[in-house]
Write a structure and sequence with these properties.
single chain, alpha+beta, OB fold (Dihydrolipoamide Acetyltransferase, E2P), BirA Bifunctional Protein, domain 2, Gyrase A, domain 2, 3 domains, eight-stranded mixed sheet, five-stranded mixed barrel, 22 strands, 28% helix, RNA-binding
RNA sequence: GGGGAUGUAGCUCAAUUAGGAGAGCAUCGGUCUGUCGAACCGAAGGUCGUGGGGGCAGAACCCAUCAUCCUCGCCA
């Protein structure tokens, strides 16, 4: 089909173009047919321009213009004209002009779209995902994709300027036992053998350090076969980096520089450096989360010392079993009704709490079902410690430390929502969380797991406990948190094969298994591995937060549903029997 | 794997206690020369997610199942 190249985009024309003859190509956003005159909003990714078909101006074009419908693809030629006085549209950048059409070419017809292509639409996500190519035409999605593009470009510019080298690592790799479930790829050439898709390029980037590349980065797809969430997809994108001859603070400086640049270039916001740091313990005790949202206060307080001599059995049990008593002050919520408190109690119970203790703070007393179990000293201590005043409400939870703090952390977020503590224009809250435990004990399997990953270095002063008491070893690991979201995590790595062997031993991985699964890394470490460390950013989450979205699906062009399906192309799908046969696979 | 919410016209939703499937938008036709959420008049449009059950009668009740969203577990 013959058509002319555009002279302008649909967002370009202004009053200075009045009088010029132009060609515009784009989609019919909407048609307004007034009988004698037809207006078309012509759309491309740059904007919208109103084009006009008028019989006295051009009869032929007007006749053909009657056929236009939403989402037709057209090419028009015409003259830019100043809009008649009073008909300007201030909502459009091009709103002071319109284009009188001399020639219309319909490049393609379009079925009526299942939903309107508009800024904000009220359409179920299934429908949007099924017709994702239409959803992506919407200005909002176009903006999200463009912002993501800028995120890539700015990141690449930053790391290049900092002497980092972008190196691609394999997508087909060896399955590793630790961590998330692998996506598995069968090998046709090696019967019964499988590749795995990387959960992250962790081992490869460490090997690149052994190779002397010194500073590496990559924007890379990673895959984890685990259940999904609003902020988790089975395939996702990381900004991955690794540096040699560094300690924790060196990594922080690089990352803080990146955050400063990204915030400046993408949001026009100046981040104050250095970023605040919280230890894992402190984050848990004060915010009940290892990714605390610091856009608001509402801090939790550990009350163990207030109740050190408690008679009340619930508190006594908690203290005797090395548990925790944690409190939260809800300012001015003393008028919450029994019904509201029951709802919050249910909320806590759903998270796994035994119950939720609440107390209304009165002029000279505490009003609560459990008040009679507390001594006057305890009541006084509680009020002082929580800084409570008459009219306030306070919550308490008791139980095993991590779990209880977590539940209170959820309650903290819930109360923040109810009290609308997160202002729309709140300053972004960035912080480091440091000093994670190296290991996590798992009751079910009766063994330790690496909290970060098995290549994470212990703090030097804790190395001595690696064998005797792994539970008290802290890691040289750190997370970067933005507005209550974990957006990056990393660590200084083990670079010596003996320490790495100790690590595997603590994880209950036998020498044989370690040699089989990680032998190549252990071997590499014997040939002169520099001290190194790095980080990986969740680019999707970062992109989501910059776009102001609440799901990473809104910043991924073609995402999966929460059951891992692609509604557009209907994957995953069955394959032919002969494909399976070639792969030596039999379904059962 | 567990919990919660949802599923009715192309889209968003309604339908009281089980008793005539409806509205707005979109679509189609008509009127209309300055609209920009055009307006006005008219029309068409339904496997009530799917399968089964009880019942004179089901969109509604029961069972199963599928899908979507949120969430706990899980995510080194």
């Amino acid at each position: 089909m013959k058509f002319n190249h555009r002279t302008h985009t649909c967002g370009a024309l202004r009053e200075e173009n009045i009088g010029s003859h132009v060609v515009l190509n784009g989609w019919v956003n909407i048609r307004r047919d007034l009988g004698g005159v037809i207006f078309i909003d012509l759309r491309d990714r740059y904007g919208i321009t109103q084009v006009v078909f008028e019989p006295h101006y051009n009869l032929e074009a007007h006749e053909l213009g009657k056929k236009l419908r939403s989402e037709f693809v057209v090419s028009i030629e015409g003259n830019v004209r100043k809009r008649p006085e009073g008909t300007e549209n201030p909502l459009l950048d091009t709103g002071n002009i319109d284009v009188m059409v001399d020639k219309l070419i319909i490049l393609n017809h379009a079925d009526t779209p299942p939903f309107p292509i508009e800024e904000s639409i009220d359409v179920s996500e299934d429908t949007r995902l099924k017709y994702r190519y239409l959803d992506l035409r919407r200005p909002k999605m176009q903006r999200n994709m463009m912002l993501r593009h800028k995120l890539y470009q700015s990141t690449r510019r930053y790391f290049d300027a900092m002497d980092f080298i972008e190196i691609e690592t394999p997508v087909l790799m060896k399955s590793t036992p630790e961590g998330a479930r692998d996506f598995i790829v069968p090998s046709r050439m090696h019967k019964g053998k499988f590749y795995a898709l990387p959960q992250s390029p962790q081992q490869y980037k460490q090997l690149l350090m052994v190779s002397g590349f010194d500073r590496y980065f990559q924007i890379v797809k990673c895959f984890r076969d685990e259940d999904l969430r609003a902020d988790r997809q089975p395939e996702f994108t990381q900004i991955d980096l690794e540096m040699s001859f560094v300690d924790v603070d060196d990594v922080f400086v690089i990352m803080e520089g990146l955050m400063k640049q990204l915030f400046k270039e993408l949001k026009g916001y100046d981040v104050d450096l250095p970023l605040p740091r919280l230890s894992y313990e402190e984050a848990m005790e004060r915010y009940g989360s290892d990714k605390p949202d610091l856009r608001f206060g509402l801090e939790m307080v550990t009350l163990n010392d207030v109740f050190a001599n408690a008679e009340f059995r619930v508190f006594k049990d908690a203290l005797n079993s090395k548990g925790i008593i944690t409190g939260l002050l809800a300012k001015g919520c003393g008028d919450y009704t029994r019904n509201q408190l029951d709802v919050l109690t249910d909320f806590a119970k759903k998270q796994g709490a035994g119950g939720l203790i609440w107390m209304r703070v009165k002029e000279n007393d505490l009003e609560a079902p459990i008040a009679k179990f507390l001594s006057d000293d305890e009541k006084k201590g509680l009020i002082e410690k929580l800084n409570a005043e008459p009219g306030d409400l306070l919550f308490m939870l008791t139980g095993p430390k991590t779990k209880t703090l977590n539940i209170m952390g959820h309650l903290r977020l819930e109360m923040a929502r109810r009290l609308e503590l997160i202002k729309h224009d709140a300053k972004p809250a960035l912080l480091w969380v440091t000093d994670f435990p190296l290991f996590e004990w798992d009751e079910e399997t009766g063994r330790y797991y690496a909290m970060h990953h098995p290549f994470t270095a212990p703090r030097v002063e804790d190395e001595q406990y690696m064998e005797s008491d792994p539970g008290r070893v802290y890691a040289r690991a750190y997370d970067l948190v933005l507005d209550g979201n974990e957006i990056a995590g990393g660590s200084i790595r083990i670079h010596n094969s003996e320490l790495q062997a100790k690590m595997f031993k603590a994880l209950g991985i036998s020498d044989e298994e370690a040699a089989e699964k990680f032998g190549f890394l252990m071997n590499a470490f014997k040939f002169g591995a520099p001290p190194h460390g790095g980080m990986a950013f969740g680019l999707d989450r970062l992109s989501m937060l910059f776009s102001g979205e609440s799901s990473i699906r809104d910043v991924i062009a073609f995402p999966k549903t929460s059951s891992g399906m692609s509604l557009m192309d209907e994957s995953p799908s069955t394959v032919d029997e002969h494909q399976l046969k070639e792969l030596h696979i039999k379904l059962r």
